[in-house]
Amino acid sequence: MKNYLKIIMIDEYSVTPKYRQLANCIIAGIKAGDVVKGDMLPSINDLSIALDLSRGSIERAYNDMKKAGIVATIPGKGCFVNHTEFNDPTRVLLLFNKLSTHKKIIYDAFVETLGSNASIDFYVYNNDPYLFKKILHERALETYHKLVILPYFIDDYEESYRLINSLPKNKLIIMDKLPMSINGEFAAVYEDFANDIYSALLRLNDHLKKYRQLKLIFPDGAYYSQGIIRGFENFCLDLAFDFEVLTTLEHHEISPATVYINVAEDDLIKLIRKIKHTPYVIGKDVGLISYNETDIKEVILDGITTISTDFVALGTRTAELVMSDEKGHYAVPFNVVVRNSL
Fold first, then answer.
1. How high is the pLDDT of residue 259?
2. Which UniProt keywords are given for this protein, alphabetically ordered (predicted)?
3. End-to-end CA distance of the chain
4. What's the pTM?
């Protein structure tokens, strides 16, 4: 039996599931000619011990390759390479700035749409431009067909955008945020932040009319797009609402006849706590609108009104661009869900 430990390299820093990394390595070995038709794969037990991986991860990798017709199982003997002539899956380097509930929705839609057509190396750089640079410099970028990036950075963003601009544009797909600093002909699926909040508030205007002012909670130094503030302010000016942008809730006193719009999830919890310490009733004296739809917002406080990007569409459309050579820029839909908090 071949020494598969020379073929299989599991990257502990990658967020790509271990079972997917394992399958990718074996497929790469087949494409390189290091593994040939008829070769027997290690048993699940042997590979689990050698790689310090769970049996479940190895079993899932083998099952995925069985479904693709790459390997077959012979009862009582083991798992063998059954097919070596297959379409080379599109290799994708996927860089997320962070993990969150809605980022998981994007990722799941992206992976489900691609299915077995792509091999994905997934990394999270935590909004850190230095970690972002390190990941790109340590990857063999020439081996990837597509580079998919969510470009959010805490600081040193100009250097990060210069690095992105140095990447081959025929491989580049920008997801979620579309910075003006990125130039050239590349593909993008993005949120139109200024227009999204403006149009969402316009759809909610009949509910907003019973309030006197609107307050947007936008954390100071946050990586969120400034387009949110522009769209919010433009709406308030056009529709003659008193308004304020709050960078923190720490010393803020809750005002009646006010609608609060929170961007960050942490601020939603703080806001609810503050309101509960007042005599005001949510949905009557004080309105509440939260960014990003999640299941919990349907339940708490008898339902919180949300404005939210269609994250499934964001992941799905990006995956479609991976499998094509389109270079267009596509804004994703923005949804409004009205509940009792308004």
1. 97
2. DNA-binding, Transcription, Transcription regulation
3. 66
4. 0.76
